Fold this sequence. Notes:
By secondary structure, this protein is an all-alpha fold. It folds into 2 domains: 10-63, no CATH class; 107-317, Orthogonal Bundle (MetI-like fold). It contains 16 helices and no strands. The chain has helices spanning 8-31, 42-63, 74-80, 84-94, 96-100, 107-138, 145-153, 160-171, 176-183, 195-219, 223-231, 236-247, 249-265, 268-274, 281-290, 295-317. Helix 6 (107-138) crosses helix 10 (195-219), helix 10 (195-219) packs antiparallel against helix 13 (249-265) and helix 10 (195-219) packs across helix 14 (268-274). The longest helix has 32 residues, at 107-138. The chain is globular. The chain starts with 7 loop residues before the first helix and ends in a 12-residue tail after the last helix.
Amino acid sequence: MNNLHLPAWASWAMLIGLALFIGLIVLSVRRNHGIKRSLFAAPYSLWMIIFTLLPCVLIAYYALTDANGHFTLDNFRSFWDSNHLMRENLRSVAGDEVAATVARGSVNVDTLVYSLWMAFLCTAISLILGYPAALFMADRHMKLGSTLVVLFIIPMWMNFLLRTIAWMSLLEDNGLINAFLEWIGIGRVQLMYNQEAVLLGMIYNFLPFMVFPVYTSLSKLDPKLSEAAQDLGCNEFRTLLKVTMPLSLPGVISGITMVFMPSVTTFFIPRVLGGGNTRMFGDLIESTFLKAGDWNLGSALSLIMMILILISLSILRKADPNGEGSGIA
């Protein structure tokens, strides 16, 4: 594995940043003749600088350099054309004619498109399943609403990896579901190591992140609005369509964000439930870093994913600029 060592400037940047941070705190205390309440956020700011900002800078550095630290865009060319490095090596050894026989490789782009499609399916199905559940939980006339909230929270107390592995005992060939199907005479079916199993695992793990933001928005609605709509002639369906759903849109946007982002970058669920038959972009980034040992290409792939996520967030946040739909009530 190569490129395991940080560049020299990264260590100096951490030391200089830490010194500037301490200097700014001291200067602020002296100017204000004491500690202001805003300075209590200083540990969080330092944490964000070291563990969020600096790693992003390092990812950008590796993505824009080669193994020798020289500036290059070949890493992004390798994303678009997975055979780019092979073609360049052949060109240097055998000439342009031989290199021209190597077709463009679309593995990386196809993996990204597939990941986006799976994340879209997971988000859409989670919304279809989660909105009625949140609506039922937020209904003040339903006595089981608070119980359902607890039932949604309890699985989240368990480790994410354990929740995913638990599905193997249900879906495998000798699992509980196949045992039941065989008992009723249907026979065993292939439930593991396919796209459907991966999608099921994604929905199971990320569904609560759709339910709770929507539930928060619905629980904050004034019930007098629905009563007024019904007094003006709307039935329950039109009230839901014209009043409840538009007012709960901030929670829906927040739920879409919280489900889509981890779905598109997940890698453990496809590995366990897909058995290597389905490969998502998170798997590609992990294998590029850990198996191929190519930190430069891995950083380029991570940077591309980061940019796509930021673009998605900026688009979604336009529908909820104040973040009213976030949080759990």
